[in-house]
Amino acid sequence: MINWSNILPTLTAFIAFILGILCLFAGTKTSLLLDSDVFTIYTTNIGNGTGMRDFYSIYVMSYCEGFLKAGKALTQDAGNNTSLSSLGWPSSITDDLRAFGATSKSMGAFYCIGIGLAGLVVLMRLWFVLIRGPRQTVVEVSSLMLSFMMFSIPSIIATVIALQFVSLINRHGKESGVTAGYGQQFLGMTWAAVGLLLVGGIVSLLTVLVDRGRSEDAVCDPMAEPKMVADDSDSVESKP
């Protein structure tokens, strides 16, 4: 019979580990989850006749490697001698993107820590299985909850971007026809990882508490009087 209280925390940590890697490295290669962008800027209206692309997608790692490179790409596509402002690109959007720089870098850092902790949980469980250790340990509980916190922070940031930052770009770029949209697939993956880690952490914590309670019940009370064992020889009648 499968002991889900032992397997479930490790399984949730493993799935969250995979989802975190996908969120972190999405868009770093042309064949890797191109639809999992944090948000996308659409420049169709100002890109016609200028050589600019129709859209520019922003990912966690690509931004962490330098979002200004994307700004340079916009300028390069339009021609190095042509400024973006002359094409109708709102300077306020450039300011918005610069303000987003530190936020995006912090997202990558939190994801790295959360992924590392989730991977640590999986490795610890494999070790405890080999040595026939306890079902769950305090270290596993702590790692799961810390990983949950590390995933929650960038997920909240991504949600704020979806609700506020994209709306800010749309408002500032309304007159020039520059629009933006957030990545629903990215939000789905990052919040799925958060939910899995929360469930795994709760199950792991309950398992530790239950096992500790059982071990305490099994310990004899040192103040209790020992039970007297009847001597069989007293119950045997002597025969002449």
Automatic annotation (TrEMBL):
Question: Cellular component terms, GO, for this chain's entry?
Answer: cell cortex of cell tip; plasma membrane
User: GO biological process: any one?
Assistant: fungal-type cell wall organization
Transmembrane ranges?
Answer: 7-27, 108-131, 143-166, 186-209
* Protein keywords: Membrane, Transmembrane, Transmembrane helix
Q: Which PANTHER family match?
A: CELL MEMBRANE PROTEIN YLR413W-RELATED, SUR7 PROTEIN
Q: What is this protein called?
A: Actin cortical patch SUR7/pH-response regulator PalI
